[in-house]
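JOB MANIFEST
job_type = single_chain_structure
chain_count = 1
residues = 416
[input]
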Amino acid sequence: MFQKLDIYKKEPGQKGLVLIVNFMFRGDKRRKGSNTDVENLTKFFSKLQYQIECRYDMTKKELQDYFQEIESEYLTEKSEDYHSFICVIMSHGNEKGLITKDKIITVDEIKKRFTGFTDKPKLFLIQACRGNALQEMADGSDSPNSMQDEILERRSCVQSRNPESEEQLYTDSEDRPKLPKDADIIVAYATTSDSTLNTDTVIQSVDIDKDHIKVEDSKGQRLCDALILTMPVPQILALKGNIQQLINSKSDVKKNLEDVSYSSRFALGLFYKPGTQLNYSWSGKYITDNPCIRFVAIDNKKRGLDSSDIGPSIVVHTSVPFSLKNLETEKEDMRDIIMSHLKQVLPDLPEPVEVKSHKWRYSQVHKGYEGSPGCIVLNEKPLIILAGDGFTHSNLDGCISSALSVQQTVKELCKL
């Protein structure tokens, strides 16, 4: 089991701290609604039993000094008294950041003041325009059809100038209530800004190192707290490192892993110029009388993209016996052979402008893991889970079923 869970805890007696900073700019009429926002936020966070700190109209230095004071007094010296920190800033803004009484302050400059409040959530809510781009807007009235019927183009922010500096800023003033076209949309990124998302890497070894797992891939080494492996089972068995000792110590697991088998397959993608006519009534067809070709699909038609503006494309799959016989041949060397068989099946097929070839050594699960468990826990501390359609069955439903099994297993082990 985990000794340390990757969740935020609220200890008895702890409270949250919310900081609300509102820039009124000497009673700027375009900012009059922000006072109502402050009142509503205060009522809301009071119900949640948060400690509330409010400030108005400061220079950049005054704001930075105040942030430093909050961080030092509450989030460092008394950090054990708080379970979370929320900072709400309401102002004018532009592409660079938020407008204070005299200068711009960026979000990065705001965030870095609170890095000492570790292992606890820090939420920053910024109410300000970030540019002057044209944006589709929808009427925000109570009419049930307003979102569908009244979509129009307008400037979401009105360009003006900070009366106490030379910075261009944008206000969110508008007589009628409007909603941006991307309202009600939540976007979740896999990484933080400027961070790398590691894809298309080849895992070479897995080693358990005390409370962590050391993974070495084609791009280097990294430590992780938990590892979920979903690659084809033969590739799991081929991993180096002490994961092999772990597998060997579980004889039943090892046998069941070794019994998992896959079919293999070559594929071609054929691409044509827009306007090319493919005179076939079907969008997909299984082929039974050719030793090489098993399936052909007019891919754009299958996806409902049958248009003269879009060049048609064809996907070709080979049969399993043919693929197994030629498995060690390079995919590019197989392209002309597969094309010659395809012309036998479809003699009127036009010449494509491009052909791409692909080989799946592990295409579909032929025989899955005994009992189809969805996933198995290879190690609990640190956690290593083996999953994928090799532990269910070979189709999209099998992948989803395995993912749900992993979710349930993690919840149980982490007591979520």
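[summary]
The longest strand covers residues 354-367.
Residues 1-5, 141-156 have pLDDT under 50 and may be disordered.
exit_status = 0
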